[in-house]
Each structure stands twice: as C-alpha cells, then as structure tokens.
C-alpha cells in the first residue's frame, strides 16, 4: 500500500535536546535554581513558550510577561549559537539509510516539528531540500499532543491519515500521532512510549525487513 512518513526533528533526526538543555539550564542558574536532565525530559516535544512556563514552575519563580519575553529571546539566542555550529555529522545513526531507502522506493516524507527553528536546523545538517513538506512551530496553533502538526503534514503530502507513519521520541508526539489516526514508531524506551505501535531504541530499527512489513 502507499504510505508516507512524517518525522519529528529533535530526538529523531538530530539530538538538539542537549542544546536546549544547556540553554534552559543556564537560564535556571541565572534565576537561581537547578535544572537537571530529568527536568529536561519534561520539555521534549513541548513548545518554547510552554517550556519556559514549566521551567519557571520547577524553580517556583514568578516573573512578569515582559521578563518572560526577554528570557525567551535570551534562551533562543543561546540555543541558536549551538545550532549554527551544527553539521551533517549530527544526523543520528540510521537516519541517512532510512531516507535513502524512502527515496529509492518513492515514499514521500514530511517534517512535523514543534520547533520554530526546524527549517534552519535542517539547512545546517543538509537535509532541508530532501523533505517534500515541512510543518514546524510557525505553522501550528495547537501544540502536540494535539494532532494538528501531523494533520497538516498529511494534507501537504496529499496522503490519508491512516497511511501516514509518524516517527516520534516524545510522549506528547506519540499521543498526537495516535490522535491523528496514524501509525506511530516511537524512538526511545518502550516503558515511556508505550502508546506507539512500534518502539525502537534508535533509528537503526528501520531495517529493510521492518520497512517491508510497514508497506505490505
Ligand atoms: C521541539 C523540542 C522541544 C522544543 C520545541 C520548540 O519539540 O523537542 O524541546 O522546546 O521543539 O523548539 P524551538 O526551536 O522553537 O524553541
Ligand atoms: Mg522530539
């Protein structure tokens, strides 16, 4: 059957979570509290504005709307400092093989990310032009777990939702994919991504055998 893929970006194509972490942690330090890698898990797949809210909650810090805007800009500026140094070396293992397989088999694919920096990141790692469609944080009004981002992706690919395969590393993303009536492959731990139809530790799980199973 005809299928199409919709990929999340952070944690699936590249590991930008480590850069988000460094930038959020520096902000927390500046505001006088600790921000751990465990805390960072809570921000995966979550929009920038929502991430700041969660961070401020962790630190029990209350600030004005104006200060929030200032810190959002500050965090993103620091994050972009890391992003601007990214190269194709940072594409996660298994991704190139998978995209080559999809190209060879004329299976189209889109990006479905909460990140407003998604187009820049894809440019940096040299993958921008390979995607048939890009849906990012600038295109959606409702964040994951709302299915909007993936529904727009399916529309852009002109594909029925039930024929779309979403690849996601975040709980909110898996929920969004299932709410969109799509097949979901989780990348991470089974205990965390239990609602996905399949879960692999990393992107090398997309073996030719598994891809055959998806298509047939
Ligand atoms: C992805 C990441 C989140 C990040 C969000 C917004 O979903 O997993 O950690 O907060 O994108 O990213 P942005 O680049 O717009 O700040
Ligand atoms: Mg992700």
TrEMBL record:
Family per record: Belongs to the HAD-like hydrolase superfamily. CbbY/CbbZ/Gph/YieH family.
Single Gene Ontology MF annotation: beta-phosphoglucomutase activity
An example Gene Ontology biological process: carbohydrate metabolic process
Residues annotated as binding Mg(2+): 8, 10, 168-169
Swiss-Prot/TrEMBL cofactor(s): Mg(2+)
Keywords: Magnesium, Metal-binding
Binding note for cofactor: Binds 2 magnesium ions per subunit.
Positions marked as site (Important for catalytic activity and assists the phosphoryl transfer reaction to Asp8 by balancing charge and orienting the reacting groups): 113, 144
Active site, renumbered: 8, 10
InterPro entries: B-phosphoglucomutase_hydrolase, Beta-PGM, HAD-like_sf, HAD-like_SPP, HAD-SF_hydro_IA, HAD_sf, PGP-like_dom2
Positions of substrate binding: 8-10, 24, 43-48, 51, 75, 113-117, 144
Coiled-coil parts of chain: none
Organism expressing this protein natively: Lutibacter oricola
Name this polypeptide is given: Beta-phosphoglucomutase
Domain of life: Bacteria
